[in-house]
Amino acid sequence: MADNENDHQVKRELKTRHLSMIALGGSIGTGLFVASGSAISTAGPGGALIAYVAMGAMVYFLMTSLGEMATNMPVSGSFATYSTKYVDPALGFAMGWNYWFNWAITLAVDISTAALVMKYWLPNIPSWIWSVSVLIIIFLINALTVKAFGETEYWMAMIKVVTVIVFLAVGVLTIFGIMGGHATGLENFTYKKAPFVGGIPATLSVFVVAGFSFQGTELVGITAGESKTPEKSIPKAINQVFWRILLFYIFAIFVIACIIPYTSPDLLGSSASDIAISPFTLVFKRAGLAAAASVMNAVILTSVMSAANSGMYASSRMLYSLSLDGYAPKYFEHTTKHGVPLRAQVATTVVGALTFFASIAGPKVYVWLVAASGLTGFIAWVGIAISHFRFRRAFVKQGHKESELKYHAKWFPVGPLLALILCIIVIVGQDPSSFVHFDWEKILVTYLSVPLFIILFFYYKIRHHTRLIPLDEVDVEPHKRDEASTEDTTD
């Protein structure tokens, strides 16, 4: 047990501007800057737009669901805590550990990617030096204060936002022929098999790419526990997500699709593993901007570091929350005088570092570790949808009125149900062909995070004899984590 007065609580230092930018920054990353090209080459401009519009709508509904719960009970554990309180303690246990593990592994992926980006400028320096350097920097930023994380993430997200705005402006000028010479207009939308290439199967496959692109938006729920005014900042941040998704994703995909034909071999190389080729770089070059590659490389480096920064923050808060709920050792309840759960952060860093060094020692081990965390984001989204559905039903059944809620989720119950269905479609649709050919190794690599989640769930359920909490017993009263005692919700 920790020994200072700040234990069992983290400081509320994140301002509205921090949460708004974190919500936006979490959804702008290599998925937009790099992988968006492969989406267009796979399903054509029309198919890519449909996939991103559908997934964008789903993410918006999920965020409004999370916003309703987060304003009612702002906690650092967010959806894992909501799963515990509104559904079943076993679900909260599985959600929390799965999410922590995901971000700890993703941290290793991010620092490895950062090293690849640095090789663009300094190819002769060993990659591990860059990876270790980035890990140390990210650790120190998060170890200082909550505000240090918020400010760093704010400015890194700002760089990404400015880049997208400049890209959209240059793109529009290029489409009309004001820059880059030839006006493309909408000609690439009717080029060869466009706008829809590969039919419904191709469009559905792009749902997966779009879904991964939007992962990270749920971070706004985790930051709720450290917001100064969650009842104001969370709704504002979430309400802005819709318009930002529309502007920064849908419009960006439209611009890329207008300027670059889906048959371009450069788009085929646009994958998360090939950060040297970005559709943004291609569009800037098309407009005649010679330094485009170097500038975009710097932006992608910022994006990767932002992802690592957010990952460190999210995972340490999740482990801290797990310890408060009794799902992790009490050792991790300790916070520094600045409200930072340092022990949880150290544990996360160690796991991330071990994963990184495993990638150096044996690629096979690394592949399996990454596979084990691959679908965790979608599993978290499923948990958010189920928790919100149960929360609202319990809220009404216990005699409360919707007007009592500080923030109302849009289109309930359509929102969470639609999000639940789409998430399941995306999870199942990761690689359906592997089932046709019964490629068991491929199936395991693709879907490993699902059985791991199920094992965690039933382990806790069987050991503690938990049950689905009846609606009239669900705790829907508004309160904050540091004002409430930790209750034993097991049988």
UniProtKB/TrEMBL annotation:
Main location: membrane
Gene3D superfamilies registered for this protein in UniProt: Amino acid/polyamine transporter I
Subcellular location: Membrane
Pfam families: AA_permease
Topology in the lipid bilayer: Multi-pass membrane protein
UniProtKB keywords: Amino-acid transport, Membrane, Transmembrane, Transmembrane helix, Transport
Protein name: Gamma-aminobutyrate permease
Lineage, highest ranks first: Bacteria, Bacillati, Bacillota, Bacilli, Lactobacillales
